[in-house]
Write a structure and sequence with these properties.
about 180 residues, about 75% helix
Length: about 180
Amino acid sequence: MTKPTKTVMAFAAALSLLSAEAHAAQTPPCVTEEEVSGMMAFAMPSALDGITRACRPHLAGNGYFATQGAALVSRYAARKDAAWPMARRAFIKFGSERDPKAAETFEMLPDAALQPFVEAMMSQMIGSDVKSKDCANYERLASLLDPLPPENTAALFGVILGIVGNKPGKSGPKICPAQ
């Protein structure tokens, strides 16, 4: 092979690599079921606590949230720290879909700064969506989840989001196909 041919081939190979890297940078990575499960395990205590507090005034004083809601939140909170590494990865991937620059910033933040921010954001998002007319359904859902170990609940939500999260027209990063 002549030197000009080798140079052209090397240049073409470099261009193809750069093109692949540019395409990868434009296409956000999918979020794995494990990352979604980690995110759910991390978010569940805040979500359950926010829903319990928002719904308590609208439900019976001897209902599930009033009598067992705090214990359920505590059980889920016990796994929150172990779930954080996967939750962090999922959060950053979801963030990169919305704002790549913000995701880069979040990635550089230490856990001690990012973790409380994510918790507060999730709690705010969930708390603002609670409607009093739905409280009886939330209470029933919580009572149905109660016998499940928290890790099973988080995995269940990971599978469900993997099924419904990749529908056409859905925004946000895709859930990676099940392995």
